[in-house]
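$ run holo --ligand "magnesium ion" --emit tokens
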Amino acid sequence: MMTNDVLYRIRDLVVEYHTRAGILTAVDHVSFDIRRGEVLGLVGESGCGKSTLGKALMRMIQEPGRIASGELWFDGMNLMQLPPGEMRKLRGSRISMIFQDPMTSLNPVQRVVDHITETIRVHQPQTSEKAARARAAELVDRLGISRNRLDDYPHQLSGGMRQRVMISLALALRADLVIADEATTSLDVIVEAQFLDLLKELREEFNLTILLITHNIGIVAELADRVAVMYAGRMAELAEVHELFERPDHPYTRGLLRAVPNIRLDDAELYKMPGSPPDLVSPPPGCRFHPRCPDVMDICTRQAPTFYENKPGHFVNCWLYQEREENVSLEEASS
Ligand SMILES: Nc1ncnc2c1ncn2[C@@H]1O[C@H](COP(=O)(O)OP(=O)(O)O)[C@@H](O)[C@H]1O
Ligand SMILES: [Mg+2]
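-- output --
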């Protein structure tokens, strides 16, 4: 059941990578909420900072990266202040991440059943080996993997089955939040559809909150309640899914939607947005989208707009919708 209750509150998050070319700001003052029980889609072209943001929410950014500043409030807990041990526990229990290639998260020398029973017993140490095994069998059943695959090693499974195992681990943990980063990208279309159906069922049944990171707008249309659009490390737009598809405000979102096959079948040729996302070591001044924007105005080249709620529940980061004078003073006030 979807409510407006906030599970994860992210404020002014900045994530940097210290590279030889200089400081690369992959996530730049990003603020948004993840509501309890929702599927929030996170879209944007490759290199816009989606994976970095997902990892930052788990506090899993590694060298040469770091969270430079910002606030992470998960279920009322201040994660930026949480000691590493506590954070590890939280990662192993309440927040779980599924990656494109589950082989990187699964232990190649551990059988499927051991992955699941171990996860169950970390979460509930009092569970007997036998009870954990029974629960593992139930879980894989539920996910449509036959029980006799429990003794297989990860490499013996298909990509789709490995993703199901990853989901079963999240369920074994009874995670509140699952962050799925391009989790279906390596699957073929039919297996992908099955996996998405399964996610839909499970979110209801287990009351999961899902951050669905993907470059595939079709998947978001299918599964998400709300959609966040990221461009060059910043939030461009965030709205309820139908609102975003029917009334996209940000020129970047409009470009992304135009480039999706099947949405506009009357287009003879598929639109391709000109240009590509900028180098985040030295992004363009002002609005980072301005060099590619069909609606660019003078101010866009000089000053960044603010990500703000333009209509109820609909946030946009674009000068087309902002009072300039008002915003100049806002910027001054916050600098
Ligand atoms: N480990 C890293 N070291 C240096 N730069 C990185 C690292 N990981 C990601 N980046 C850079 O951060 C930016 C955002 O990357 P990423 O978060 O992977 O975007 P997305 O998931 O949207 O494709 C890119 O410019 C990428 O090159
Ligand atoms: Mg990515």
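-- notes --
The CA atoms of residues 299 and 324 lie 8 Å apart.
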